[in-house]
Amino acid sequence: MPHVVTRRRFVAAGAGALLATLHPPAWLGAQASSDTAGPGRIGPRWLPSGALLHGLPRLLELATVPGLALATVDGGRIWSRGFGRAGDAGQDSVSNDTVFEAASLGKPLFAYAVLRLVDRRLLDLDRPLWRYLEFPDGDNPRMRKVTPRHVLSHTTGLPNWRQAPGPLEPSGEPGRAFSYSGEAIFCLQRVVEAVTRRPFARFMREEVLDPLGMRESSYVWRPGFEGRMAEGHDADGKPLEVFAAIGRRTAAIADDWKKPLEEWRYEDAARAVPLVNPAWPTLPIYMVPNAAASLFTTASDYVRFLARVVARGSEPGLELSEASRRAMTTPAVTLNRALSWGLGWGLQR
Fold this sequence. Notes:
Blueprint: H1 7-19, H2 50-62, E1 67-74, E2 77-84, E3 100-103, H3 106-119, H4 129-132, H5 148-152, H6 182-196, H7 200-209, E4 232-233, E5 239-240, H8 243-257, H9 266-276, E6 295-297, H10 299-310, H11 322-329, E7 333-334, E8 339-341, E9 346-348
Antiparallel strand pairs: 1-2, 3-6, 4-5, 7-8, 8-9
């Protein structure tokens, strides 16, 4: 294959299509009107035009992307549709029921959950993580200063992921510079488990997924996902599963332990790593559930989150305070003229 799409590019294409609902570039042929149209709007009106829908199959072919799930929010209206194939092996078409390894799209969902805990005064954005939970491999002055605000704005100074065992230590003073970090998100996940006294996957289902009606989404593998997964690819164009493969193996381990995956805490996830693959070190990058990486979802499910939270359509009890909403949408750190980061979100202008 002269042109292939990697798993990261495949996921990024889906994520880009999904998240482009907020500020679509002109070349997409979007139908946009004033940002002030309608009460409480935070962006332009956006629905895919007929020209875009007609041209999408050709764009997918040119980009060597087998399939795409596209979802948009237009005020209170949700639109979603699948295009192309879910994978190379079969002829199953992408649909609203196609499940994706959504990877980092789990981070904004987690950020929303964290900010709800802040609104309920169970977490303080500026209280160091160390005050909630001690990290034995992070006993150093910089790590003791890392706060939830640093984590959600990716300014902890921690690496994206440690690849080998070693100290958990920021490379610079927390809060000074952008440093995208799944490892930091996982640290905050452990704090959330400690504060709420609930295993992470169950906490997310009870606090976010179920209330938002995201019935096809989970941070752990479900047998019902089988046969509905979109197929990613490696750099050689070969089919590749990441957390789906880990998910099946951990599900089997959970059966052996007679402890459902949704009830796993950090200690269970750590204990399972060498059972999934003896060659792996016991590090967060290999652990599930994982707030930074292990979300499974559909485009039609994820757009419910955008419609309820981003477009201010939340029902009572699901909305964020104005202070938390401002924290999500106000730049905490600037990367360049086009991109900054709020709490949990990349903000693109």
